[in-house]
Amino acid sequence: MSQNRRAFVASTLAAAPLFIPRSAWGANDRLAFGLIGAGGRGRYLTENFIKLGAECVAIAEVYDNNMTAAAKIAPQAKQYIDYQALLSQKGLDAVVVATPDHQHAPNLLAALAAKKDVYLEKPMSHSLEQSQQMVKAVRASKQIVQIGMQRRSAPSLIKAKELVDSGVLGKITMVKPMWNWNVSKPLNDTALPGKLDWDRFLGPARKRELQPMRFRSWRLFWDYSGGNMTDQGTHLMDVVQWFTNAPGAASALAYGQIAKSTGSEVPDVFCAIFEYPAFMATWTLNYTNSYDNDWSIQFQGDEGTLIISNEGYKVWKEPWRDLNNRTPVLSMAAPVPIETHIQNFLDCVKSRKEPNAPVEVGASAVSAPHLANLAFKQNRRVQMPTFG
To answer: Model-level pTM?
Structure first.
């Protein structure tokens, strides 16, 4: 390792300061937002937006039970079943979109037409083609759009990215993102309690009779999502590309199986292999086992190895087989907060500066997972298409 690298490594041993929320919006200067999609994720985001000083003034939701739960968080918010009606409410500064994937593009395009800033949950799009359309629409507007990939605003990952940029790992040849949860089980298709507007849920998806499991577990059906591949893969493949300064994957192979999620269309155990110009990446997910629980990404270089996870990061020197190198030479213990990412959006709404995860990042992040889904469905190696 060079003297400059050693100096940089020494300077990073001190942990980054913890995130301290600030009151970005005072009593007379609070961001008024509407929530589109009040499921579990939408309610979680709403709680954190409110905690950081924003005010939820409107909620659009197609399922009564979700609306009831959201109203407990924001009892003053006006309630809608039609998100288009929400967008016409006066005094609305921004919207938080937490609908299923297949609604993201319509929701975003409608919000832009209404001249609202948008915090849009990941994955940004339901297809590679939609990504292109969404980027063009945002760039034709003056709106601030943040994609909900909170790792882009996490202090521990920002510090780890600086380490990689310093050259501490040397030449990176292999990256291994992984996600393990023991959560997979047969889908529940019993009758839904409460009233659901099924047609509004379907939106642009093909029409069919109501199957309760399609609403309860929409992430496990291709009509409404990219499955587990894009749900978690968007987060992890974004970090892979961010840390390596890599363009989108050139090609992908994928294999998966439905092990325990009976009734699902998408695999709950899978592996994808991605080709990049200078390295390869293997992305695995297993929802039937909790060993090394949660997510992690291993970056293997010829001078060191970096492992990042929800607990922080650790760096080991090469060669690891040397007993003196079995202890990490660098580490930082820190979770990935949502608050820093939301705060970045709030700051950018006021400053009109680019957020940490703009639409170009959102499109790039989901591109490799979309490619892997195409490879899985076609049972062959698929190359990234060229868009005009």
So the answer is: 0.92
